[in-house]
Amino acid sequence: MRLFGETHFDILGMRRWAAMLSCAVILISIGSLVIQGGPRLGIDFAGGSQIVVQFADPVDLNELRQALAAQGLEGSQIQEFEGEREVLIRTPRVEEGEELAVVESISSALDVVDPAPAGFEGRMDLNTVGVAVVTTVLLEANPLGLDVVVDLEDTQRQYQQIAQSALNVRAAEGLLASWDQVTGLGYDAAVAETLQSSFYLGGHHVVNTEWVGPQVGQDLRRQTMQAMGWALLGLLAYITYRFEFRFGVAAVVALVHDVLIALGAFSLTGREFNLPVIAAFLTIIGYSLNDTVVVFDRIRENNQVQRRLPLYERINLSINQTLSRTVLTSGTTLIVVVSLFLYGGPVINNFSFALLVGVLVGTYSSIFVASPIVYAWYAWAAERVKD
User: Fold this and answer.
1) pLDDT at residue 380, rounded to an integer
2) What averages of pLDDT result for each successive group of 10 residues across the chain (387 residues)?
3) Residue 114's pLDDT is what?
4) How far is CA 143 from CA 65, 126, 135, 178, in A?
5) Please, are residues 236 and 156 in contact by the beta-carbon 8 Å criterion?
6) What pLDDT is attached to residue 84?
7) Going from the N-terminus, what domains does the chain have, and what CATH number goes with each?
8) Mapped to the 3 state alphabet, what secondary structure does 246-297 carry?
9) Residue by residue, what is the 3-state secondary structure of 348-373?
10) How far apart are CA 14 and CA 2, in angstroms?
11) Which element (helix H / strand E) includes 199?
């Protein structure tokens, strides 16, 4: 299938303009990275905590930020996660053993923003406690009148099941907003009364908590750099084996070109650089290389079939012959990536953004970067032979 018919674009004739454009964009990317001190590292690489909190009502982010600062967490980053009722809190990295203190500080700040209602100060928030706490409260009150002395283990198991079922509702709904959600499970009236007398339904719930220590983050950064380096070396060896060394160098230069521009896009937009983004970058490398190899393969074929044509025309012919395939493949991929970017949600937004930039830049580099480098190398080698 061809998107359009035979083309005769003078791609190599635009190589100087393309080189200036690429150099300008790369300089902007590097400048942005230097000014901002590198990419904005996510918790995977920088270390620290990442906590998602769901609120019953929209929360004032400035008030939450002040509450966290009052607890000694001035460097925390706060942003809306999925709508105005979910908030993502990122705290700076902490030393091992300090995680509990950070959790307590965040809990205290949340209690300031969302305090217990009047008259409920002595009760615990059912939206923030775990199964063990609820089980302990039920076991001590023993609303079912079970024989705790004779069969403590079985009694504890029964109350644990009751506690787990209540908190399963919280996990499914995200937040317990009404006691009907709990009493509707068919508990004994005494159990429901014990829960309501011991707990209250607060307006926030910690949905998810992630921790990465500083050493783990440092190791991940090192391993990521090694993975990227070995990938490029492996690709250089493969292209050299499959074609020639000059083709391998051109392919690697094009890939570095793509990665630098994608990094710059992340730096300029202030997006977070984390492990899913690394996966996207490796995908970009593979995708861009695929397009480049298709063009290189046609150049090698035309070097044998079209020997009478000058090198300039052979390379231009090769690019034009594969242009329809390149645009068609990139276009269909772009439709999927744009859909992921627009409708995929915040969890994969950075991943899809990296793919979006990578597909566009990778297609460009396959046409305007890799092949012109091969031509320049051939021309330089020919001049050396003449001299």
Assistant:
1) 81
2) 67 89 93 84 72 82 84 75 76 66 80 79 82 88 79 84 87 82 81 86 80 66 79 82 85 88 88 82 82 85 82 86 84 89 80 90 88 85 67
3) 82
4) 41, 18, 12, 21
5) no
6) 67
7) 12-43+214-386 (1.20.1640.10), 46-211 (no CATH)
8) HHHHHHHHHHHHHHHHHHHHHHHHCCEECHHHHHHHHHHHHHHHHHHHHHHH
9) HHHHHHHHHHHHHHHHHHHHHHHHHH
10) 24
11) strand 199-200
Residues 118/151, Cβ–Cβ less than 8 Å: no
Structure tokens at 262: 């994608």
**Residues 198-221, buried b or exposed e (16+ Cβ, 10 A)?**
bbbbbbbbbbeeebbeeeebeebe
Looking up tokens 């150049």, which residue turns up? 299
Angle at 330 between CA 327 and CA 334, to 5 degrees: 130
Half-sphere exposure of 175 (CA within 13 A, CB side): 15
d(CA 200, CA 128): 10
Q: What is the DSSP string of 67-84?
A: HHHHTT-TT-EEEESSST
Identify any residues that bridge with 209 across adjacent strands, giving them in sequence order. 51
99-113 and 61-70 helices, crossing angle to 10°: 130
3-state helix, strand, coil in the chain (%, to 5): 65, 10, 25
- What distance in Å separates the CA atoms of residue 327 and residue 322, rounded to the nearest whole number? 9
Per residue, what are the HEC states of 106-156?
HHHHHHHHCCCCCCCCCCEECCCCCHHHHHHHHHHHCCCCCCCCCCHHHHH
- Are 345 and 88 contacting, i.e. CB atoms less than 8 angstroms apart? no
Name which of 321, 317, 297 is nearest 308 in CA terms.
317
Q: How many angstroms separate the Cα of 296 from the Cα of each of 18, 244, 291, 292, 364?
A: 19, 10, 9, 6, 15
Q: Can you tell me the distance from the alpha carbon of 89 to that of 80, in angstroms, rounded to the nearest whole number? A: 9
10 Å Cβ neighbour count for 287? Answer: 20
> What is the spatial distance between Cα 131 and Cα 119, in angstroms, rounded to a whole number?
24
Output the 3-class SS for 289-331: HHHHHHHHHHHHHHHHHCCCCCHHHHHHHHHHHHHHHHHHHHH
pLDDT for res 1: 52
| 91 three-class SS | strand
